[in-house]
Amino acid sequence: MCDAEEATEPRMLEFAWLMSVGAAHSAVPAPDYRLELLARVELETHRLLESGKPQQALEHIQTFRKQVTDEPRLAYEESLVLRHLGRTADATQLLETTLSLDRTLAAAWYDLGELQLMDDKLETAKTSFQQAADLTVEHPQGWAGPYRLAEVAGFQNNPAEFEQHLEEALRRGFSMSRTIQGDPRWAAFMQQEALAVILIRLATVYGEESVLESLFPTPQENP
To answer: What is the pLDDT of residues 115-128, one digit of tens each?
Structure first.
């Protein structure tokens, strides 16, 4: 047995023991050991990623899913590692599988939409972002889904949906200055008259006029 396997096995046994303790004492009011366990696995995966060890992070989450328990939120966690490794096709497939098991994972819908947008699959991205938006109406980051929907509408040159989704994002706390300042995609929207009119109006209404200058083309100096 290799060193990595030797190090992993006791940890997996510890996790399995925690789960059995939670089950054995389920009649007694106590912390939710299952949720605590899942959170610990996610934290360790994030720690490995932040330490520049993505392959170890992948092995960690895959081993846990195989040996201890497998749940949609852990599959989603693995998809994050796959994206970090540049394996976007694998991440997309895993997200689709995950959402077939649990359609309430807003973050998974959002990430799937991002991957679909990267592949220029605008209609499927639109569906995914709409699911994310519907699931996060009261969430502090609930503006993210409508913001992405506005972006898709911009790419499709659909002023009506662009305005609808951008205004919804702003109502949910979207900050133009923090999110689209100087963004070349949104600068391109400013070159489309119908979209520019909407952007200027909403930026003015919501006190975000400062972002507009960054979205206009930079004047070229004469040689």
So the answer is: 999 999 999 999 99
